[in-house]
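Hi again,

Forgot to attach this to my earlier email, sorry! This is the prediction with zinc ion bound. I've pasted everything inline since the attachment limit keeps bouncing my files.
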Amino acid sequence: MKIHCDVIQDLIPSYLDGICSEKTKELVEEHLLECEQCRVFVESLKTDLIPEIPQIDAKKPWLKVKR
Ligand SMILES: [Zn+2]
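Structure tokens for the complex follow:
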């Protein structure tokens, strides 16, 4: 069964967020092994996502407020 790249690229955001099912994860990973176009898509999403995540926890000035 060949899955269209559009379908895989639809699933990739959930895959990267870790909110997809195990089956979906397998499906995406299997496709990525064979499809450079979708690997590039994943990489472009990752570089978009990664800088944002640490920033959320980077500074919590309100935790240091003294009574
Ligand atoms: Zn593909």
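The mean pLDDT is 84. The longest helix spans residues 36-49.

That should be everything now.

G.
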